[in-house]
Structure prediction request, 476 residues.
Amino acid sequence: MKLMKILWVDDEIDLLKPFILFLEERNYSVDTCNNGEDAIEKVVDTKYDLVIMDEMMPGLDGLTTLQEIKRINSAIPIIMVTKSEEEGLMNKAIASQISDYLIKPINPSQIIMAIKKIFQADEIKANEIGQQYTRYIAQLNQRLFSSPDWDEWGEIYREMAKWELRIDEVNDEGLRQTHFLEKRNCNTEFTNYVERNYKDWLKTDERPNLSFDIISQYIAPHFEENVPIYFIIIDCMRLDQYLAIQPYIQELFEEQLDLYYSILPTATPYSRNSIFSGLLPIDIAKRFPEYWVTSGEMDNSRNRNEHQLLDKHIGELGYSLDPTSKYVKIFNMEEGNFVIRKIDTWNKENLIVLVYNFLDLLAHHRSRDQILQETIPHEEGLRAFTKHWFLHSSLYEALKLIAKQDAIVVISTDHGSIKVNRATQVIGDRDTSVTVRYKEGKNLTANDRHALFVKKPADYGLPSKSIVDNFIFAKV
Prediction:
């Protein structure tokens, strides 16, 4: 094990001999000096792992010495020892990047704890999180065995997503791999649960909130409040991605986080149209055939009429908006900047819908763009990339402006994404849809362990082009 070299700077260094012996007995190498000038010279000549420094010294005081040492070596950790708890002094020290500070009188155990906090924090944290995770997984397996309902599955999903971020903090590859396997097991069990129950959910009110419930449950109840309602959909955002940006949302708004279940298939033409219309796809196709394009090759065109479907849905809920809702879809920076310019003029509107497509574009290009494959090689990278995008996005700037208004903001997504690690083969005729999440066509064949077969699309609330058409959905 490497011998750690410490420089201790104090104008009364001779009185600290017992502390220095205490550290040396624990295999720390300690150099000493009694003024800032000598400390700076030693840092120039010797590579130290840590500096412990008194704040009050004749000549160069501790803060001035600290700043000069940081100029020489910005990475060196510094523990400041001070007699004062004055807030202004500590603010200056912290701004100068001290790693920790101790208030006199100090004792040996304080010093050891401060050193461990700096150099062993990640290891201690990883061990503690590893123990907590082991206990959590034992409890989780018991819950999975007891057949959780939709509320319990929602809670499991929340917990697993939060664990993603906690594991990111300690960067433990073993823990990350264990979580990957546990998550895969949960995905399998959840897929089986949805397969058993989904058709019944479409026939009863005893079910979780689904895509077509969003407007009636989360938007319409606010119409009577006579304040602008901003309904923001971030296409293809998972819960763990939201949790990565959640702290910045909470700085702007009082936040409440709820979960809902996307309809099947979890693809934009189906799930987002269902959100805006309040209907299942089969009912959209029957009632508004002009808004439903049946060609599998034209999935993107199916979402061209979201605004019209939204206004009809609001009318059917018994509300008449005057003026009607605003709707903007944001694909690029120019459209995002347009929203920023217009927000101040929307403070008298009833409902403003903003659809941001960046994360969906990212998910699609991530699998085929070499630069993105290098930049986002795993799910931790996707969360970090999502946070980076959000903090520099027009969406974040828009939210800052909205926060200044007396407004209600509902942020949602239409579906999430899963990085595919195992492919499966699907066989169909040349008219089979080319989509990845699902296939629509005739005589579709695939491994039933990897796909859910839908022989009667109407049972799943789906329209079909002919009586022999069927669907398959990818399992996870």
Remarks:
- The chain has 18 helices and 14 strands.
- The radius of gyration is 29 Å.
- Residues 18 and 108 are 9 Å apart (CA to CA).
